[in-house]
């Protein structure tokens, strides 16, 4: 009688990165993938002989799996129904195995996903320093007292919304 690992060997040889296409954009699927190996599960051989076709064999192997649904849901931070639904998608894509392992491309994807999430974010750029202006604009505006690098002010003391320099200040710059 072949063991579970021997029955899974042909499926492991057929693993391809293309299998990830169905789950690559789903954070929920990634969480279920990451939670599956630590979920409590038990496999018992199903009744009858193992089918010869690979599709039926895959279903037959999964028919003998019992797992902790609430444990999987809580580890993946999903409802039990949603976690079971995502596990079904992963099973049909052959990314998870009944023995509690996950496909090698899936493991590499989860590792890269976690590395990206744990990677420190690039620090925010330091604000640009205000340049000290030279020449005629280096002194405050004679009309509104706006300092260099600051917009001129209206009579009510608020800054203009668009860059604006009083006529006297412009003539100093042009001169």
Question: Would you write up a description of this structure?
Answer:
The chain has 175 residues and is mainly alpha-helical. 41% of the residues lie in helices and 3% in strands. Helix 2 (27-35) packs across helix 5 (80-92) and helix 4 crosses helix 5 (80-92). The longest helix has 15 residues, at 104-118. The radius of gyration is 32 Å and the shape is rod-shaped. The model has no long low-confidence stretch (mean pLDDT 80).
Quick structural summary:
41% of the residues lie in helices and 3% in strands. The protein is built from seven helices and two strands, in the order ααβαβαααα.
Report helical residue fraction: 40-55%
Oligomer: single chain
Q: How can the largest sheet be summarized?
A: 2 strands, antiparallel
Radius of gyration: 32 Å
Mean pLDDT: 80
Brief descriptors of the model:
175 residues; two-stranded antiparallel ribbon
Q: Topology, pairings included?
A:
Layout: H1 4-13, H2 27-35, E1 41-43, H3 54-63, E2 65-67, H4 69-75, H5 80-92, H6 104-118, H7 167-174
Antiparallel strand pairs: 1-2
Helix pairs in contact: 2-5, 4-5
């Amino acid at each position: 009688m072949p063991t579970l690992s021997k029955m899974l060997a042909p499926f492991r040889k057929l693993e391809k990165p293309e299998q990830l296409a169905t789950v690559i954009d789903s954070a929920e699927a990634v969480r279920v993938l990451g939670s599956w190996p630590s979920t409590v599960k038990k496999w018992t051989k199903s009744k009858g002989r193992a089918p010869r076709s690979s599709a039926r064999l895959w279903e037959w192997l999964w028919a003998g799996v019992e797992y902790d649904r609430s444990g999987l849901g809580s580890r993946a931070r999903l409802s039990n129904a949603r976690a079971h639904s995502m596990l079904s998608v992963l099973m049909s894509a052959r990314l998870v195995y009944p023995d509690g392992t996950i496909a090698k491309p899936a493991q590499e994807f989860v590792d890269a996903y976690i590395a990206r999430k744990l990677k420190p974010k690039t620090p925010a750029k330091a604000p640009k320093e205000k340049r000290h202006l030279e020449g005629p604009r280096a002194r405050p505006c004679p009309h509104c007292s706006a300092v260099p690098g600051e917009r001129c002010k209206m009579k009510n003391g608020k800054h203009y919304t668009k860059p604006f320099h009083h006529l006297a200040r412009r003539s100093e710059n042009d001169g």
